[in-house]
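Budget justification aside, the reviewers requested a transparent look at the raw inputs and outputs of the sequence design task funded under Objective 1. We therefore reproduce one unedited record. The lines immediately below are the structure tokens for a 86-residue chain.
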């Protein structure tokens, strides 16, 4: 996400945490069968966007739309207003 979308590491961590919150991932999960670029786009656009059909028409999910209770280890809650929004 950092390379593809030009976002900060903090924003990437918030988005990853929001996408997978409450899920237990094991070696059999689909996450381990897709490339990093797939997950970057899926996390940024959302799976309901069907971005893989027409990425040019896909819209990035604004940080303000993500749960406000996502924390980064060793840091206070990341404030969405500190980060880029499209």
């Amino acid at each position: 996400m950092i390379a593809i979308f030009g976002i900060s590491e903090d924003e990437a961590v918030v988005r990853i945490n929001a996408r997978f919150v409450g899920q237990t991932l094991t070696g059999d999960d689909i996450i381990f069968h897709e490339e990093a670029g797939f997950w970057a786009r899926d996390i940024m656009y959302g799976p309901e966007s069907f971005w893989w059909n027409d990425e040019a028409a896909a819209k990035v999910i604004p940080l303000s739309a993500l749960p406000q209770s996502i924390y980064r280890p060793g840091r206070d809650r990341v404030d969405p207003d500190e980060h880029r929004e499209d």
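The two ends are 14 Å apart (CA to CA). Residues 4 and 40 are 8 Å apart (CA to CA). Computational costs for records of this kind are itemized in the attached budget.
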